[in-house]
Design a protein that fits this description.
It is built from ten helices and 14 strands. The protein is α/β, with parallel strands linked by helices and 333 residues long. The protein folds into two domains: 141 residues, NAD(P)-binding Rossmann-like Domain (Rossmann fold, 3-Layer(aba) Sandwich); 173 residues, Dihydrodipicolinate Reductase, domain 2. An eight-stranded mixed beta sheet has the order 13-12-11-7-10-9-8-14. Strands 3-2-1-4-5-6 form a six-stranded parallel beta sheet, sandwiched between helices. The longest helix is centred in the C-terminal third of the chain and has 20 residues. The two termini are 38 Å apart.
Length: 333
């Protein structure tokens, strides 16, 4: 086991600023440098966290005192920056989605495999205690044979949200973003396929109803899973007021409903008082992506979501969009 701390560099200081703060305070981690195109933001975060800063990604990659790069840039650039980090010999993680292009995802997976480095995707909900216990309940057959998995994400985003960000307007452009499914819904699409298992087919529709954007603000899909269960997905950023997010799963022995991070229903035919507390989690488990990367590097553990796993939600989202364009059912590889 390595005795020295795992040294991090963070690219992009929107959501990335929160991960930089995590790296600065996590045991066995050290925040070395932050990078952002906006010099004032880079200086501000560096001053707050007592680390170095730069506006040049290549300069950060050349540093020999950085082990891990975290990428928090527009969605359509994640794997571009990840591959550059891999080529520089760094372990790397990207924020969700892994990318909006399956080809780029595959390129990053292959590059990491060839270089022998870690490639991970930051899905914070995978570390959540409730979600992990729910996964254990499903894997241990508490609901019996799975029949149906439904996802509903009804959020609101203003036009100003799409016009903002840096570079300005990246969230509304097809080149750098997918839409409500790819940006916001990907959190829950990842959970749905983690809970239910691999997806076999997708029939989807996408459209733009309430915003002046190139991307979609409403997507719907009918899903068939490899275990022959069915599913449905609804994601939108046009729901005012915001109605939240839910995942409902039904098996032949009962149902469980996850709503905005909490279990609001858990009923089984063969147990009048079921509880997820029967499942015990390792108290030393990673609680976030920084702890996960530290554990993977120092202990050789497997990251929660590697590149292959992170690609799965991108494949589902791309299938929704492709089905919407073609009107056909899309079979996943």
């Amino acid at each position: 086991m390595l005795s020295s701390p795992v040294r991090f560099g963070i690219l992009g200081l929107g959501v990335g600023a929160n991960r930089a703060r995590l790296a600065a305070k996590t045991e066995d981690a050290e925040l070395v440098c932050v990078c952002d195109l906006q010099e004032e933001k880079a200086k501000q975060i560096a001053g707050e966290l007592n680390c170095e800063w730069t506006t040049r990604y290549d300069d950060m990659l050349r540093r020999e005192d950085i082990d891990v790069i975290g990428v928090f840039t527009p969605s359509g650039t994640h794997c571009d920056y990840a591959i550059k980090a891999i080529q520089a010999g760094k372990d790397v993680f990207v924020t969700k989605p892994m990318d909006i292009s399956l080809e780029k995802c595959d390129g990053a997976i292959e590059a990491a495999r060839d270089a022998g480095v870690i490639l991970a995707v930051d899905f914070q909900m995978r570390y959540d205690e409730t979600a992990r216990k729910m996964k254990l309940a499903l894997d241990n057959g508490r609901l019996g044979r799975l029949i149906l998995g439904d996802l509903r994400m009804k959020w609101y985003r203003s036009q100003e949200y799409y016009e903002g960000g840096y570079p300005h307007g990246w969230r509304k452009r097809r080149e750098t973003e997918g839409g409500s499914a790819a940006n916001q819904g990907v959190h829950f699409i990842d959970l749905l396929q983690w809970f239910m298992g691999p997806v076999k087919t997708v029939y989807g529709r996408s459209g733009t109803f309430a915003h002046n954007i190139e991307t979609e603000d409403l997507s719907m899909a009918l899903i068939t899973f490899e275990n022959d269960a069915w599913g449905s997905i609804v994601t939108t950023t046009a729901s005012y007021p915001r109605l939240g997010s839910s995942i409902e799963i039904t098996g032949d022995n009962g149902s469980i409903v996850w709503k905005d991070g909490k279990i609001i229903l858990y009923e089984l035919k063969d147990n009048p008082e079921p509880s997820l507390d029967e499942f015990k989690l390792n108290p030393e488990r990673p609680r976030n992506i920084i702890e996960d990367m530290v554990s993977a590097i120092k202990k050789g553990s497997k990251v929660m979501v590697d590149g292959v796993e992170g690609r799965k939600s991108v494949a589902i989202i791309n299938a929704i969009y492709k089905s919407s364009k073609t009107g056909k059912v899309i079979e996943l590889d």
